[in-house]
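Forum: Protein Structure Q&A
Topic: Joint prediction for protein chains with partners

I've read a bunch of threads here and the consensus seems to be that you should model interacting components together rather than docking separate models afterwards. I'd like to see that in practice. Below is the full input, 964 residues plus whatever partners are listed. Could one of the regulars post the assembled result?
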Amino acid sequence: MISNRTFLAFVLFSAATVANCVHVRAANLSLGIDPMVLEFAAPFGGETHASVTVTNSGSSDELVYARPIDWRTSPKGDVLFERPGTERAHSLTSALTLVPSSFVLHAGETRDVAVILRLPANKDVSAANLWGGFILRASASGASAGGATPGGTILVYDTVGSPRRHLGLTKLAVASGSEGPHLVAHVVNDGETYVRPVVHMLVERGQTVVLERTIPCNVLFAGDAREITASLRGLPAAVYRIHFLLDYGDDSIVDGVTDARLH
Amino acid sequence: MRGFISRMSATSLSVTLLAASAAPVHDMPVVRGDGGKLLVAVQPLADRLGIPVKHQNGALALQVDGTWVRLRADDITLREGDAPMARLRSFPTVHKGRLFIDVADVSTVLDVDARVANGRLSVARQKAHIDTKSTEDDGFNVTELAAPKHAPKPSPSPQTDPYAGKRLLANVSASVSDYAEQRNYNAMLDGGGQHFHALMYVNGMEGSRANVGGTLRVGDAGRKHVSLGGINNPLYGTVFAGGGANGVEGVSESGTFASYSATTVDARRVLAFGRRSGDWVREVALASQFGIFQPLIGIQRWHETPHYVLDPEIWFGMHGIGAGIQYRTTGRLYADTRLAFAGGGLPLVNGDALTQATFGYDVSKTFGVRAGYGIAHAQGGQALLQVYGGNATTSYTLSHFGIQNSAAVDFSRQFSKLRFGYINAPGYSAVENDGTFEMRRGVIETRAYFASGNSTDILADYRFKRETPSLTIGLESVHADNGGRTAPTIGYLFPVGSTLSVGFEFHPLANGNGIRFTAQQAVYGSIAPAQRSVFVDLESPVTAALDLFIDGMRIQRITEQHTKISVASGSHYVSVQSEDHRVGSPEERVLDGAPSDLTLPLWPVTDVHGVVRLPDMPLGMVKPSVAGITVILKPQEITTQTESDGSFSFPAQALDPSTTVTLDPQSLPSGLAPPAPAQLQVSQPVTITLRPSKKVEKVVF
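Posted by a regular:
Agreed with the consensus. Here's the joint model:
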């Protein structure tokens, strides 16, 4: 469960981001980050690094600065930002360094920054999953801090050893409500490490595939449960076979199957 | 490693990096070399620009825009591996164990915009770049970064470089010029190789004695060598800071050195012997000046970190002692301080016992100030006050130093450059301006010069941009005390052969006409590497006309099953192929003549091509791309990559009949696996169908 303080922080951050986006267009600032997700496999006591490209596609010079964060996902799948260290033993943030952590990007300029992971030694643990990251913000170069700014994240995972990876499907049913018929799936990460699944829904009528859709799904950490819904509105009344496919990155794909009659 | 540079002395040139970081950087290690050239240390500059640097077998390797290039102190060519990339203006050189390059070469080496104006080097990176992927591999995986792929093996290509097999030995240049009524002339020889280097120069002006100098070096710079001519002052530091030195020096591999030298002013002769070990230099010397001999013992430390330089030293002599310390910092607020004490009995020359304090502050990215005061033996106190600034296209400097005031403004854009300069000293003042404006087919050059004494020279000309003979036409106005004229100029620059270019220009003088003359000769020498004998045995008898190839170049016809050939030292690939291209052998590597016995099979020349296809995908799996999949021919490990439609092809080549075709699993899209290796069918297209790599875990509700 998330604390009220975390939820409040998320709400405030979201509101600030929305407000900033409006101002961003007016100021013609821009911030591009690629890749936004890094997955490492460094052991305890190990060190590794990766390069992230930061781009200013706007027409003004920008001062880009980074702030370390902890984060996690809510049962609905939203990303919640936290103070560094909140995830305790799972927090990777104190072991991460962004070089440089602030710099000037001229209009149209691209720069590679280094994400360096130096994991302290821990002989007692052979397998673990840690995560952390950074928020990057950009302000007009020369402007005082605190103005409206675009932002983006670099989310970093590290897997130590070979923890078991699995995603279970505990419920799959069709429900109806004010928004029309929709598929409801309950997914649980019953493995020992995080999963970034690719979720796919496929609806068959007889031998014909009538609907095929990829459903966005954020990361599930070990023990996390998630309810995923997908609309079935628009399908004519008939009997359908619905496949709910979870590719969780290991050697197998979960294929949940249910039959439903839509009215 | 001491004394590798002749006549080098610290200078007040400051370095400003624009666009690379928010804060300009000053006091990058800069020295003034032979002929007045300004040299800047490569590594600190590269570090500031975020360019990875590493030392490789006596060379400095820099990763510029993703490419590793190499610089050597004895090689005027910038190289990628052994391949020449660009020719530098001057040989890189070593000073205090660091590699320095001419500031005119900064742009070429580091791929940046670099401009020098009035004692200030401005460097602007258009695209800052840090490539951390190039650093040492830690053995861990970063799964979201692109997996490394086999590069397709390049097929041998014929050499097209007209200078292939030749090495640039030297550049010789000479010029005579006159402005208003003042005639100047200079000539320079700059050449050498890995174990020898000569830099000789003559320059002067009409009515005064010519300045002749230079250095001859035998041995490797930075390592064991002997130098003759302008050498480093063996006592150089803060106590003995003044005077150049001519003489001879020898340096061993371990850093032990011996030298005999004389200063160009105040006639101090020094016989020195010492050793540099790490940061420390320990030295004994016998000095003589004005008929007085005295032994000296000195200890110096050259300590340098990325943030500061701290060089303490102490000297004991028969008639006095001396001690000094230099402390220099970098950053937005920076300092260059030296404090020296020298007893009057020491053999001092003009400029020794230097005590100075200079401080600077970068007020903003485009504006900074520096101020200081210095005093030295036989020199009155001199104040320095400087204001400077600039951005990516403009830089300016206003200076007061001692009794001289100066100002300089530079404008630089992609196709145009304009510079204004002003100098005022007792008895002399001048204003000068020059500019170049590039056009599609030519360049407009302008120059204006106004000096005290009614001396004026204004020129504007147009030069055609051609590698072949090129014409210059323009108009020049010249005035001096005794008259003045305005008349057209005409010049001609033409190559003589492939290595000599000669140019001359007729132009007006205040009275009469003058001629300006330039000549530049590049001297090449043939490389004749040692040849090694290699015996080539063919596995089957020769039944067709066979040619032997080295590095893809046809060398000779083979008529017997056993043949002796000559292969140059280094790495080369040897193969044979029939005249009708039906049979041939794989390429075998010969490194420095090894293996000396080469057995080559004769296989049919085969053209392999085909397509990689997707399988019937499991439900829910998105169809991935089949582009960029690495196809491998085994056992030769020859690779290529698929096009966007999955097709691939290998150039026709001799292949073992047992060759199989397989795929690199690392290059496959997620969820797919390669099939078992397929036997190659001669002249048949190869179809490789991938298979799903995932099982389906079915859950029914």
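The first helix of chain A runs from residue 4 to 27.
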